[in-house]
Amino acid sequence: MTEDTKKPLNFLEQIIEEDLANGIHPKKLRFRFPPEPNGYLHIGHAASICLNFGLGLSYNAPVNLRFDDTNPAKEEQEYVDAIKHDIKWLGFEWDKELYSSDYFQQLYDWAVLLIKNGKAYVDDQSSEVMAQQKGSPIKVGVNSPHRNRSVEENLSLFESMKKGGFNEATHVLRAKIDMTSPNMLMRDPIIYRVLKRAHHRTGNDWNIYPMYDWTHGESDYIEQISHSICTLEFKNHRELYDWFLDQVHDAELMRPKQREFARRNLSYTVMSKRKLLQLVEENLVNGWDDPRMPTISGLRRRGYTPEAIKKFSELAGIAKRDNVTDVALLEFCIKDDLNKTAPRVMAVLDPVKVIITNYPEGQEEWLEAENNQEDASAGFRKVPFSREIYIEREDFREQANKKFFRLKLDKEVRLKNAYIIKANSVVKNDADEILEIHCTYDTLSRSGSGTEESQRKVKGTLHWVSVQHAVKAEVRLYDRLFNHEAPDSQKEVDFKTFINPDSLVINNNAFVEPSLKEANVSDRFQFQRLGYFNIDNDSTSEKLVFNRTVSLRDSWAKTEAKQ
Ligand code: ATP
Ligand code: MG
Q: 540 and 394 in one domain?
């Protein structure tokens, strides 16, 4: 490895190191990321992207982006574009953009070679009969009556399949391997089926399409991928992967090696594209990039950074066995990143008015506020202060015990970047709701003014915005999409039963400080004391729309610290 040699190697890197040491694949490493363009990428794919592109960077080796597009029924150009956009956004660069469909002719020619070598045959039994003949893990299979068709007959049938002479589900091409193999996948697997569908790249050129197993390994071979890394469910497929390579491998060329790692699973969400598609199609979310989706595009819209996603992949690690990663780790990664980078601003989500009765009417002051105490280079901004301000309704109580460090009658708090105020009385409506809190301020206590009073310590500090300067905003408060740790773990219960009804709460009553008028779509901020928020695509110059990326407090923690 060229860098980071101090970090312990994961087991895949150890395999690569051994191969290099043994002179297998000398200096010819090449990796690939092989998405099927049948949906948007999710945080599980990010694990595979970070792994494959990370290996490329560590070993200074190229990484191909290969679209595994062998199923025209489910694949679309929209997905190809979204996948490319997401990988680039994560900050990775592929060497070649390739498509399995580019190899349809080569795959066909190799299939003809298999037939000529007596290693493949056309079967025209029903799928039920073939499934029965296949046996089970405890019962060996029996040979198809068509297994011994002549080469000539097979070639002619296969050609008819290709030319559209047969209907779907009537004829398949099968590899002739071993119907008694303990590995069910080796019992004469299907390598081609008739599918009369237009393909998003090859149009109506083909009436037959190659199966995944046949395509994947041979595509790796065509591209001369050294290490083909996939997820654990393909472990059983490795024997077949190798068998297919044996049929075509030329000793002069590199022989790809398949190795498997555990899928990334995340708590409180689902990760299969099929299920995510259901959420989209049934309008349970607002599209693939809904900020509650575990998709890269959803996380991006939610305010996640590429750095946080990459850090998450690194911390979650590469495992040999299936496991579930706690979503709290992902939330930690984005908080940690935004803590360093997000400017602080003040916003009040549930406002109640405070009138500072001894502050001159009509006066305003533009106070200096630090943008980010974690980053000295972030500088300062001006925040307006005036006689009437908003604070959070929950930051005031008429009476409260000693542990309530916010505002209460006859007690003081500091207003962030501003003065110390003391609550004196409240004005209420007939329903006993507080309309105004009347306070007085300590005229000498302004933060940063250098006076003794400016240093005076009081227990609580509140965020606030000046009423006259405040900008109204919509704030979308996102929470976990599911209220069950493993929504798709129960066979009898549909995962959608566990959708969290409070996963989106829209607040149209929030006020933000005026500096935010200048902000742009996708800019990220910390709303002080509340959490991290970004500006949503729906935002306009007339109406600011924010998404809550993550709150500062973890409302899901079992033992929430009580105030
Ligand atoms: P899904 O089951 O979500 O539909 P998939 O495996 O069918 O996913 P592909 O487009 O075939 O999706 O995946 C592209 C690559 O990403 C494959 O190499 C696959 O192994 C890997 N991958 C997919 N899901 C995960 C995951 N949860 N964790 C790690 N890698 C994954
Ligand atoms: Mg797949």
A: no
* 307, 50 contact by CB (below 8 A): no
Radius of gyration of the chain, Cα coordinates, nearest whole angstrom: 31
Which residue's CA is the closest to the ligand 1 atom numbered 14? 35
d(CA 496, CA 269): 10
Model confidence at 562: pLDDT above 50? no
Listed in sequence order, the residues at least 6 apart from 364 whose beta carbon sits closer than 8 Å to its beta carbon are 384, 385, 386, 466, 468, 469
Domain co-membership, 451 together with 476? no
- 428: CB partners within 8 A, 6+ apart: 434, 435
- Atom number of ligand 1 nearest to Cα 229: 18
Asked if residue 540 and residue 444 are part of one domain, the reply reads: no
Q: Which two tokens stand for residue 270?
A: 């689902």
- Please give the distance, rounded to the nearest whole angstrom, from the Cα atom of residue 2 to the centre of ligand 1: 28
Q: What angle do helix axes 212-223 and 104-116 make, rounded to 10 degrees?
A: 110
Based on the fold, state whether residues 297 and 437 are members of the same structural domain. Answer: no
Tell me which ligand sits closest to the C-alpha of residue 274: 1
- Do 85 and 222 belong together in one domain? yes
Instruction: Answer whether residue 49 is part of any domain.
Output: yes
Structure tokens at 14: 């150890």
Hey, how many other C-beta atoms are within 10 angstroms of the C-beta on 146? Answer: 17
Q: What is the pLDDT, as a whole number, of residue 1?
A: 54
Residue 166 above 50 pLDDT? yes
Measured CA to CA, the distance from residue 207 to residue 213 in angstroms comes to 19
Are 309 and 393 within one domain?
no
Domain of 490 in residue numbering reads as 472-562
Note the pLDDT tens digit of each residue in 96-148: 999 999 999 999 999 999 999 999 999 999 999 999 999 999 999 999 999 99
Q: Is the per-residue pLDDT at 555 higher than 80?
A: no
Q: Give distance in angstroms: CA of 36 to centre of ligand 1.
A: 8
Considering the domain boundaries, does residue 333 fall inside one? no
Give the bridge partners for 209, in sequence order: 193
Cα-based distances in Å from 321 to 184, 231, 265, 547: 22, 10, 11, 35
Domain of 248: which CATH number? Answer: 3.40.50.620
Residue 517 is classified by DSSP as: G
* pTM of the shown model: 0.94
- φ, ψ for residue 475, nearest 5 deg: -125, 125
We report the CATH number of the domain holding residue 439 as: 2.40.240.10
Among 68, 26, 24, smallest CA distance to 48 is for 68
Residue 26's pLDDT band, with cuts at 50, 70 and 90, is: low
Separation of CA 534 and ligand 1 centre (Å): 29
Classify the C-alpha dihedral 83-84-89-91 as positive or negative. positive
Last residue of a domain, one of 276, 291, 325: 325
Which of 288-297, 359-368, 447-456 is predicted least confidently? 447-456
- Whether 1 is in a domain gets the answer no
Site residues for ligand 1, CB cut-off 6 Å: 34-36, 44-45, 47-48, 230-231, 263-264, 271-273
Looking at residue 172, which CATH number applies to its domain?
Answer: 3.90.800.10
List active site positions.
36, 263, 273
In a domain, 4, yes or no: no
Which ligand gives the minimal distance to the CA of 66? Answer: 1
